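S1.2 Input.
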Amino acid sequence: MKKFILNFGFLGLLLWQNAFAQEKRTMTLEQCIAYAYQNTALMQKSMLDEQIAQAQNQEYLGIGLPQINGSAQMLYNFELRPAFLPAFFLAQSSGTPPDPDAEFVAVRGIFAPRYQGDVGITISQLIFNGSYFVGLQAAKKNKELTKQNSQANKVTTAENVSKAYYSLLVANERAKLIDANIARLDSLIKDVKALNKQGLAEKIEVSRLEVTANNLRAEKMKVERLIELSKELLKFQMGMPVQEEFEVAGSIRDYQLEQIPDGEVPNEYRNRIEYQILETAITLNKLNLKNKQMGAYPSLVAIGQMGYATGARYFSNVGDFSNRWLGYGTVGLQLNVPLFSGMQRKYQIQQSRLELLKLEQDKQNLQKTIDFQTRQAQITLKNALTTLDAQKRNMELAKEVLRVSQVKYKQGVGSSVEIINAETAYKEAETNYFTALYDALIAKVDLDKAIGKLGK
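S1.3 Output.
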């Protein structure tokens, strides 16, 4: 009996854990955007780009640190290189008077040993190089540019997720209203059937209302498929696996759209990440110009070398470290002075200056583009809010007309045709309202993007 109770309790625990694991989480718009920042391929690549830029910055910094290299070499001269000596050197050794015009004679084994060894290290330290110090500034700016590109990708991600999120909320609200319409029609059909049994209503009136209800149920199925498609789109924009489940928090009614004041929306160009990126590009181009100019300056490097070398006729003597390995070392300075580059540097500087002028023109054009986009988004949102307000009033009026038609029918002074027409008008008004609501929300996203508020 105890074993049965334990097994039953264990089974209950497993079922509870399984049900808990399958519970869908609820996510707000902010949570969806935060999830997308961590999981979309675009943002993951941006984070990798930032890490690459950081590594490149450290790599360039290493150029100014000491460069130390070690080497070891062992040579076996299986055929010794000949040395060419004047013949009179050999004549002197034999007692013959020297002849300055005598030919050279090849002699082997005098200056080159059979076995040679060398172990040493070389050290160099950059003391001055104008291009290097300019490059350090450029490396920092490049790192900043990478972060700005990541921010631009954040703006794109926030825009895509927001639009998909609003689309899903609108579809959910539309499904709720269709359910309410179906419930209202079912109640009316029930009342009309009762009247039909009493002989106060014709059978055809019941059929007309049932056709309308069936059409609404078919519309509900379409909306449910639209909800599923909208959710899959939102998952895609968030970088969420298809098999994961979640629900969006709240309702579309939670998002209040206020009328924007007349006049131009205050706009600061630097709020737009595209403008910041262009400013950084201009700074990088100025540094590139400075780097070309620094190419005409001298560079100075400190160098040093030390080690041990040996030479022997027999390999067994190479291992005599105490007697046959002798040390050497040198230190010094190396000055490199560019004298003439064949006019290359002059025209490289000219190209950099022209590129800088192009970027300045791009900056002016971007300012005009931002002004236009902001004004366009402002007007579009105003029009969308005006349309939304009108469609909301139309929907309320259509709902009131439908209510009055139902009351008249129950009082015997109306007809089912009037109810069906009112129901159709109300359905059309709902569709127009949700279309206007979605357009207004999208227009608000576009305005936030135009003034640089999106993605912050």
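S1.4 Remarks. The chain has two domains: 24-77+129-300+342-450, 81-112.
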